[in-house]
Amino acid sequence: MSKADNMLAILWLLKSRRRMTAKQLSEELGVHIRTIYRCIDALCISGVPVVSEIGRDGGYSIPEHIKLEPLFFEADEQKALLHAAAFAREAGYPSEEPLNRAVSKIKRYTNPEQLERLERHKNSIEAIHPPTASSLTRILHEIEAGIDRQSSLEIDYTTGYDGMKQTRILDPYGLVHWKSKWYAVGYCHLRGEIRCFRVDRMSDIRHTDNTFDRPAFSPREYVLDSLLSGRGSESNPHLVSVHIQGIPQALDDLCSHWLLSQALVDRTAEHAVFRLDEHTLYTQVAYYLLSFGGKIRIMGPDELKSGMIDIAESLLKYYQS
After folding, report:
1. Are 136 and 142 contacting, i.e. CB atoms less than 8 angstroms apart?
2. Would you tell me how many other CB atoms lie within 10 Å of the CB of residue 226?
3. What is the pLDDT of residues 202-244, one digit of tens each?
4. C-alpha triplet 281, 307, 244: angle, nearest 5°
5. Is 156 helix (H, G, I), strand (E, B) or coil?
6. Secondary structure class of 275 (helix, strand, coil)
7. Whole-angstrom distance between the N-terminal and C-terminal Cα of the chain?
8. Neighbours of 212 (CB within 10 A)
9. What is the pTM of this model?
């Protein structure tokens, strides 16, 4: 074990057993007694009040009035951390190795009863995400390094399905995981404004010598605001009221959509009314509504019904050709 692991183990033992000699600690941890002395010294230097008593019943202890709870977790807290780690792994969390080390420490420093419970509940909650390519993990590491150093990155980026590869300079402010995709949010030197970039469309990353000061900024809020920017206020002239009739189960799924849930104005068992900006409605939502088939019916506006007819006819011609 590392020195930090040994120090934490000593803290755990002294908290659970009150008083132990250096010999007892060395036998329990399987390390040389000189390692125990060095770790005790390091704990004292770091501010932990380890009390040393000499004599036959002497040993090391931690005063009763000293609270060390922040260093330890209750059984439910341990289980929650393990479940959170499982979600992070499935999402393609780039620092999986240190995450696994942290989980190992949680298991190592728990008592047998808690450990048995952790193993029993280890797979009680799971998440399913598409597998993350190893190349994407490497790129995520590079972006994280740029965020940490506050240094600009030169990226090769492909826009859209048929877009050309471009070289961009990005000041990375943060990473956002949304709908099984990773997005890097930061200042784009080419566009002269904050933009978000899909990490899976980056083919290469190079660090530069240019540094930046990160502003007070929430990448998560930026991504959500950019996706929902068309909502606006009731007075926004570009907002269109959409009235949809359908079976309750289909409307439930419709209203739980990440975008439509934000645009919902009114809902009954078989009716739902949304307010959406025209661009989003005809370029994104119309295609999504087609996937419900005959389970829903567009009651208005008529322009949306005509648009969906055009989309369906164009798809029919495409697949007939």
Report:
1. no
2. 14
3. 988 999 999 999 888 888 888 877 766 544 333 445 688 999 9
4. 60
5. strand
6. strand
7. 66
8. 16
9. 0.57
